[in-house]
Design a protein that fits this description.
It is a single chain. With about 70 residues, this protein is mainly α. It is elongated.
């Protein structure tokens, strides 16, 4: 049996949906509702910090939709 010695890094969950347009009013992405700072730091954040942001995103998205409509 041959075992791989290559270390594989687990994938980090991301809310990115490839709609990368920043809303000037909110300062958040129209696609994922994260700020530029959050997007830039995403892979370096702790799991707890990413989870906190993931929990906030539905509320952010609803707020952005309400402002647009």
């Amino acid at each position: 049996m041959v075992r791989s010695t290559r270390h594989e890094t687990p994938m980090i969950e991301s809310p990115c949906i490839k709609v990368c347009t920043m809303d000037p009013g909110s300062g958040r992405c129209d696609g994922c509702a994260r700020t530029l700072d959050e997007i830039a730091r995403w892979t370096g954040m702790s799991a707890a910090e990413r989870n906190r942001i993931m929990r906030e995103l539905p509320l952010r998205t609803r707020a952005q939709t309400a402002q647009a409509g």
